[in-house]
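Entry 0007
Protein: Dihydrofolate reductase
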Amino acid sequence: MIALIWAQDQNGLIGNAGQLPWHLPADLKRFKQLTLDHKIVMGHTTFAGFKKPLPHRENMVLSRQDLTLPAGVEQLHSIDELWALDAARPNEMIFVIGGSQVFEAVLPKADRLYRTIIDDTFSGDTWMPTIDYTNWHLVDRQAGVTDVKNPYRFQFEDYVRG
Ligand SMILES: NC(=O)c1ccc[n+]([C@@H]2O[C@H](COP(=O)([O-])OP(=O)(O)OC[C@H]3O[C@@H](n4cnc5c(N)ncnc54)[C@H](OP(=O)(O)O)[C@@H]3O)[C@@H](O)[C@H]2O)c1
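Output (structure tokens):
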């Protein structure tokens, strides 16, 4: 199973200069809870923004180049390698964690979407590809808790295909 997980603003913005446009620790916490101990797949640009692999997850980086990656990080040279991984273990959840280029490539075969929507607008340069939500069924929506460290209104949404 392939799940996409991301946070966006009201306009679908997801990135700015290789980083997230906001600081929202509650979203990072949820991201960690969901992805811990799973395979995570990301684009080369997103990985470059992290600088090091995310701990306790099997980090995989998509790139068409031959990358030299830190120990424990695997490269996927094409999206077909992701499909093969998924086919080999169809009951295992693989989290695709961005960015925009990779989301676009994976979306047609994704089974699940974990979206955080921040009820605000930010400046940036990278947007989520368009998703036709008539193909998706919302199974859970929870309001995030706004506080001093998380100074926006935000919601967590969980969709399955169908
Ligand atoms: N808000 C969020 O939840 C969230 C999540 C993740 C990322 N982001 C943000 O999104 C931005 C990065 O997104 P992006 O779209 O610019 O880049 P990206 O998707 O992270 O990475 C793009 C790179 O991945 C490789 N790639 C993409 N598709 C491929 C394919 N089909 N086969 C093989 N390799 C492939 C290519 O690397 P090579 O050029 O090396 O071949 C490509 O240049 C950053 O600002 C980041 O912070 C936001």
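Curator remark: Helices lie at 25-35, 44-50, 79-88, 100-106. The chain has four helices and ten strands.
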